[in-house]
Amino acid sequence: MDYENIERQDFRKIAGYAWGDACQGNCAREFIWQDLSRGLIHLTGLVTYASLMILLNPLIFAVVVFTSLFTYFTTRWQPVYYEKNKHQWEKEVRKRDYLQGLSEDFSLAKDIKLYGLEEWLERMMRDYQAYIRMWNSRCRLRGLWAAVLSALMSFLQNGAAYVILIGILLDGKITVGEFVFYFGLTGSIGSYLQGVIGDGAQLNTRAEKISYYREFYDYPNRFNHGVGCDLPAVPVTIEFKDVWYRYEGAEEYTLKGINLVIKGGENLALVGMNGAGKTTLVKLICGMYTPTKGEILVGGRRIEEYNIEEYYSLISAVFQEIHMVAFTCLEFVTSADMERSGAREAAADAMKAAGIYDKVMGLPGGMDTHLMKGVYDDGVDFSGGELQKLVLARAIYKDGPILVLDEPTAALDPIAENNLYIQYKDLTRGKTSIYISHRFASTRFCDRILLLEEGIIAESGTHEELMEKQGRYAYMFETQSKYYKEGELHA
To answer: Which of 47, 236, 244, 365 would be a feasible disulfide site paired with 369, CB 3.0-4.6 Å?
Structure first.
């Protein structure tokens, strides 16, 4: 599925319903076959016994059918109520699960301790749990009343059949032995008929739950996951044609009518205030999002024309958010692609270029040391800067013709940051690169700089050209740089 889907609220709701059924231990997709086989057994027994009862007295069979049909509605009462009201607690379940994830994430423990969030987490969890339990109680109460009504109808069914059979016995139409036989037959017919009706109600409920999976799998993708056109030649040119983008539920567009050509092999820098649309623009290039309006051409073809999984092979990216996986250092850098010829040597070169090689080789297992101490006994935890270097090494190793660096030096120390700037030309040689940074000094290594403001390209040019204009870029550059000038740092 498209990455973009996981950020949509309606998709999360659909996925939540399907996930909930799949994990409850009574999955509709699995147990529907068991219900069908049980229903066939009940139907066979019903036909056999009903034929005997109809020959004796159709009235008894009619009474059994009528009382058993009522059971269908009592059986369906709780599931229908559940389906009608499931949205009432679905959001609370998501909130509860989110809080549970927070409480289990050891990386957040220091924030929880230092800011006294324990009581807040517990209070919110209790509130969500109480709300969910309240709705569960309502559903179960209806299940209880349904069971009581079903038992009552069974009592009435047996009582009516008993009265009719006594009347037939007193008329001398059957013997006492036959009376006992037919009364037992009535119970068996009722049991089988209620079984058939219960199976029908259960299958109806199963069908409703299977619709969760249908909605999940039928959720539309906008990117192409089938056969696509050939990947473009290197270096890759990227063109935005009147691109607008608005996040789901937002009133304002994040990007507004972007027209931009990034030439093959060009090093482009994106700067601007938070929320200007820099990361959104990059995610559009990466095939994470699709434009709300307009189109993006990569190598002269719309991104949607490529097979999106093949298209991802073009992208080497370093994003602000770093999410670790409990691989070895080597597996993390190679993305577990160990079959690539010379993978270990290429990974070592990438680590050297990112400035993390010496750190990795100083570990007990070298490149074969596992990440994440909490998962493996030999695992290690890296600092933020070290993780950023490792992620950069992964991007270098992939060697995609489009390099995306979103704040790649945010966690680096000044020396490591300077080393990256020195190597920047070598790292981006032959590649089309997009570099996002809030540190304006780093943009001087790029061929062109774009200043984004409120979703539009406010200024474009080289560092020198923008400084000469004395516009917003020059103002922001001077504002930032004055704090690094000797004698202008104020207490």
So the answer is: 365
